[in-house]
Amino acid sequence: MSKVKAGGSSKNVHNNAGARLGVKRFGGQQVNEGEVLVRQTGATKIAGPGTYMSRNYTIHAGKSGVVSFNRVKKSRFTGSTVPRTQVVVE
């Protein structure tokens, strides 16, 4: 005989707020130093000239200027290349 009642599965418990990821400043927009340009999970976009990436992969403007996005090929450790979007402030 069982010592505890059968545990049912709970279905409606995933009620978390969204992470608010994505591009915050678009190409052609004027930005100031330190502004958040892209919030992301992992380095799907890479930081180019005039930008820097923080610990949680958020890309910030390193200087004031105009934002632009470029497609570049980034090499992996194995030698293969993958296309990435590079965020640039000029």
**Architecture, CATH level 2?**
Beta Barrel
For the record, what CATH class applies?
Mainly Beta
How many strands?
8
Shape: elongated
Helix content: under 10%
Largest sheet: 4 strands, antiparallel
Radius of gyration: 20 Å
Strand content: 35-45%
CATH-assigned homologous superfamily: RNA polymerase II/Efflux pump adaptor protein, barrel-sandwich hybrid domain
Domains (count): 1
CATH topology: OB fold (Dihydrolipoamide Acetyltransferase, E2P)
Give the neighbour order of strands across the main sheet: 1-3-6-5
Tell me about this structure.
The chain has 90 residues and is an all-beta fold. It is 0% helix and 41% strand. The chain has a single domain (22-89), classed as OB fold (Dihydrolipoamide Acetyltransferase, E2P) (Beta Barrel). The strands form 2 sheets. The chain has a 4-stranded antiparallel beta sheet with strand order 1-3-6-5, with no helix packed on it. Strands 2-7-8-4 form a 4-stranded mixed beta sheet, with no helix packed on it. A hairpin with a 5-residue loop joins β7 and β8. 12% of the residues are buried.
